[in-house]
Amino acid sequence: MKVLFLGNSHTYFNDMPRTFARLCAAAGAGEPQTVLLAHSARPLSWHLEEYFELRYNLLYGGYDYCVIQQQAHPFPGAQQTARDGGRVIELCRAAGTVPVLLMTWAERAAPQRQQAMTLAYRELAAQTGALLAPVGEIWQLLRQRSPEIELFWRDGEHASPLGDYLIAATLCALLTGADPQALPSLGADFSGEAEIAFFDHPQVREDPAQIETALEEASCAAIRQAIREVCAGADL
Question: Which InterPro entries match (predicted)?
Fold first, then answer.
């Protein structure tokens, strides 16, 4: 499996695509090849303005899936998401790549904004037939049911290691058919010393083990249960 991740900082935080690949391998589906086209604070309209970068990747990359994530904070709204997301989906299909919409989540201080995101992503998926990873809905359920699980990074917008585990595990279950309950509790962490290195003094980390980590089992189990419930209810 080869997967292109198209998005922004919410797509690459805590090396989420790498966690996705590790979970797929642990599920017995083989480790997928992941490629990242993600730029901080950029909406899908920006990626379309940089058309030839996206075109080249889709046309020659040989991708099985393209995971598509709209800007989240601020969310551009349903109309712009339908327009730009629809165009990206058209490009995916022209290249023989399956489009996957990665639903965003509301920031910690404004949970009421989740409804607009959920409706926009669900409408786009229904109109285009794209696959949908309902991350925002799972995130919302966990905030209500298990508020002690910290899904947010310190800014209240980006994902914590547990938040990115939620994203990666949802994608793994969707694209491989794996039972989320059987997935291990692993991830990556940009906090602490790693955070200083990445954000204050950016550098290449030659050893991924410096940020890869085991995650707290009880929290991951609750996340996996929420993934199963939401995805089963959505018939995914």
Answer: SGNH_hydro_sf
